[in-house]
Write a structure and sequence with these properties.
This protein is an alpha/beta fold and 778 residues long. The chain is 40% helix and 11% strand. The strands form 4 sheets. A 5-stranded parallel beta sheet has the order 3-2-1-4-5, with helices on one face. Strand 18 and strand 19 form a beta hairpin. The longest helix is centred in the middle third of the chain and has 19 residues.
């Protein structure tokens, strides 16, 4: 994963963009943080955030012109937040208001600042903190400029004195009653000062003197021509700023302070021979890209102070602060249990993935996070920047596999289960009996065959009746577990084997019974004529329902995440339900915004905790029974106690009680169902004699042990392999307390251990577990 690509993907996530208020503030006060502190009545923390960006917080809290309010998201609902009143409340209710200054080593450069208004004094503080010697020239008898024109009741003079106390802690010299001119041979001319000092900041603000007076280049409006980002003039070491450039009727104290900070940065860069323009796009006001969803936010009018002269009481300040939306995006985190589980957001996750892949030696801490994603794509659907964490995680998995850094056990079971489905035990391909060619082939998929083999048989027989020019059958797995596991070569091999079988049948149209198979075939073979069984049934009609018992149900449709962009397929599902006489309830997140059932991306194998959270969250979105058209979706919901139907349960109803509440088959039974389906079809449809696998090991397993095996994903075939090897070789331990035996077997990367006792008619299994621990000796 190249760093350039990493940066591009990082930029797609807007979570770290500042709120609109902070971006619009020329000095970028952390309004969100300050307001959050006020909500907790932590005024000390709030004022420190203000002080971090503004050297004179007592002054600015009373006179700020609040450009932040124009960008407040709240005003789209009712009224913007009273930010300045909250700043004032922070200042008034904080006992400690001391700017911590870390002194830097003194520098041998001296800077002249002409004008001791807010802009010039801000530049002096910023440069003083960096160790520069600063000399201020002020034409009037006081520093502070136009702030002295503000009435006492609005700006108490004690506030000014308290804020300006910081100047005594700076390496600066203040010269009052000095008028800078452009007279030749004058020591107070701008020419002389710029030649004497290493740099000059002309911070005269809105003085009445004609700019021509200083002899600097002018712009078309008659003001001093400055670079908009750096405040540089045509004289290399002279910079100019302040509210002069906003016009005489648009004084902006916060812009004056911003210009002082920008000028200080420019001067520092100039004196260090650094670029004046690099990475300065977001100095001053800018437009934030942060997205904040305001759907459902109730209008709430701004809190008005009972005494405007005194400002908010603490109770009023808290109430106003709680109106703030504390803007952030996190749209993907809100809908995805996986993203929420790791307590961050995609921009940070992308960095973690990149850092994880960059590790040569050491612990790969992000492996669990990378492998836990269900790759469903919902994050991209809700993200304003269309960032898809699934694509990033899947790419990372492929890289990990190629480098030999993928922990083998994570996907071991799923890959071995896929291997079973692509082996002769299940894989099967035939033309319809009596046909030498097939116009269509039915590919039900491995999970539907494992969960409901009887539905596969019924559907194939129905298709053969409705489609007259030959319906072939292909049993197998589409290879998606290998794709999800990052096993690119294995996935390609599996897809190639399917393609070979398909071409041997004459490359007919493919009808899939599984939504994931449909999406895989459509993606891998754009030229293939592939269709879902659901759109086919919508066209050709349903089996005759007249003789079957029928009860109208109100069902919640859960769309499969692999078909989130298949609008026609989703519509067919709903039309079929209406045809069957059932009512449809739509979840808030359905169709293209549907949520994963927890199986996608092999999440259920990599992180059961998140998968179960996901299933539970989805299940609780409605009290009504769920309707799915993916076998794994139905079985996952049913496993956690949610009443769920697969659509085929309604199309091919049986007399079985509580179909919706029935839990899906266990892992061992799923494999047996596939194998049995193949044998049944071979015998009943094609009249072929299929050899039934003989097993000379009979297992006796209690319900408690069976539950343990399911949780640990240990198959009956694994148990049999352990016992068979132990009995054949004698490599086993005897527990003398109960006369049981303990033995192990390692077929691949996982070692299986079984505790068992021989019985007259088989073996009683007491316990089993598995691990990937390997002890290497000399």
């Amino acid at each position: 994963m190249e760093q350039k690509v990493l940066k591009e993907r990082e930029q797609q996530c807007v979570q770290e963009q500042p709120p609109g208020c902070t971006a619009a503030c020329p000095v970028h006060v952390d309004v969100r943080g300050m307001v959050a502190a006020i909500q907790k009545e932590d005024y000390k923390a709030g004022v420190q955030l203000l002080y971090k960006m503004v050297p004179f917080p007592r002054i600015i809290s009373r006179i700020c012109d609040q450009p932040c309010q124009q960008a407040c998201k709240r005003q789209e609902i009712d009224e913007s937040i009273a930010v300045n009143e909250l700043e004032k409340s922070c200042v008034d209710n904080s006992n400690e208001l001391i700017l911590k200054i870390t002194p830097m080593p003194p520098k041998d450069k001296t800077i002249a600042i002409i004008g001791a208004g807010l802009s010039g004094l801000t530049a002096a503080v910023e440069l003083g903190k960096k160790g520069y010697n600063v000399v201020i020239f002020e034409a009037k008898k006081l520093i502070g400029g136009s702030i002295w024109n503000i009435p006492e009741h609005q700006l108490p003079r004690q506030n000014i004195a308290d804020d300006f106390a910081i100047l005594k802690r700076m390496p600066l010299e203040i010269n009052l009653h000095v008028i800078v001119n452009n007279h030749k041979n004058s020591k107070t001319s701008l020419d002389h000062i710029s030649a004497t000092f290493d740099a000059v900041y002309l911070a005269t603000g809105c003085i009445e003197t004609n700019p021509h007076y200083w002899g600097l280049a002018l712009d078309v409006g008659g003001g001093i021509a400055i670079h908009p980002a750096t405040l540089a003039t045509n004289v290399p070491n002279v910079f100019a700023g302040g509210s002069l450039y906003l016009g005489p009727d648009r004084k902006s104290p916060i812009t004056s302070i911003s210009h002082g900070k920008i000028a200080a940065n420019s001067i520092d860069r100039y004196l260090q021979n650094a670029s004046l323009t690099a990475s300065r796009e977001k100095e001053g006001s800018f437009t934030s890209l942060l997205y904040t969803n305001i759907a459902g936010v109730e209008p709430q009018k701004r809190v008005r102070s009972a005494d405007p002269n005194k400002g908010y009481t603490t109770e009023e300040a808290v109430r106003e602060a709680k109106r703030c939306l504390l803007c952030e995006c996190l749209e993907c985190v809100k809908v995805c249990e996986y993203l929420a589980h790791f307590h961050a957001y995609p921009k940070r996750y992308v960095r973690e993935v990149y850092n994880n892949l960059s590790i040569v030696m050491g612990v790969h801490h992000a492996n669990k996070m990378i492998n836990a994603c269900n790759l469903c794509g919902l994050c991209e659907q809700v993200c304003p920047g269309n960032l898809n964490m699934g694509e990033i995680c899947q790419e990372a998995r492929r890289i990990m596999v190629k480098r030999g850094k993928m922990p083998p056990r994570v996907h071991d079971f799923a890959l071995r289960d896929m291997q079973f489905s692509t082996s002769e035990k299940f894989a099967f391909s035939r033309h319809q009996p009596g046909f030498a060619s097939s116009s269509t082939v039915f590919f039900p998929g491995c999970q539907l065959s494992a969960s409901s083999p009887e539905h596969v048989k019924s559907m194939y027989q129905f298709l053969c009746k409705k489609i007259t020019d030959g319906v072939g059958l292909m049993l197998g797995c589409c290879g998606v577990p290998a794709d999800w596991a990052g096993q690119e070569n294995l996935f390609k091999e599996t897809i190639k084997a399917i393609e070979d079988s398909w071409r041997k049948l004459g490359s007919p149209r493919v009808i899939t019974g599984c939504p994931t198979c449909y999406s895989v075939f459509k993606r891998e073979w754009p030229s293939m004529d592939v269709e879902s069984i659901w759109t086919v049934l919508d066209k050709i009609g349903l089996p005759d329902q007249r003789k079957k018992p029928h009860t109208s149900l109100k069902l919640v449709v859960h769309d499969a995440c692999t078909t989130r962009h298949e609008a026609a397929l989703q519509q067919s599902i709903r039309k079929i339900l209406h045809t069957l006489g059932h009512q449809v309830e739509e979840l808030e997140n359905s169709n293209e915004f549907t949520e994963c059932c927890g199986y996608g991306g092999l999440m259920l194998f990599a992180n059961k905790e998140i998968a179960h959270k996901m299933i539970k969250k989805r299940s609780q979105q409605s009290e009504n029974d769920f309707l799915t058209y993916c076998a794994m979706c139905r079985d996952n919901f049913a496993s956690q106690g949610k009443q769920s139907y697969h659509l085929l349960d309604l199309i091919f109803p049986t007399r079985q009680q509580d179909v919706a509440g029935k839990k899906g088959p266990g892992y061992s039974e799923r494999q047996e169902n596939r194998a049995r389906l193949k044998r049944t079809l071979q015998k009943e449809v094609w009249g072929e004699l299929a050899d039934k696998e003989q097993c000379n090991v009979k297992l006796i397993i209690s319900e408690n042990v069976r539950q343990t095996l399911e949780e640990l994903m240990i198959l009956d075939s694994d148990i049999i392999a352990v016992i068979s090897q132990a009995e054949h070789t004698g490599n086993k331990f005897k527990n003398m307390e109960n006369n049981s035996y303990i033995a192990s077997f390692k077929p691949a990367s996982v070692t299986y251990w079984v505790e068992y006792s021989p019985q007259e008619d088989g073996f009683l299994v007491h316990n089993a577990y598995s691990h990937r621990l390997e002890i290497k000796g000399s």
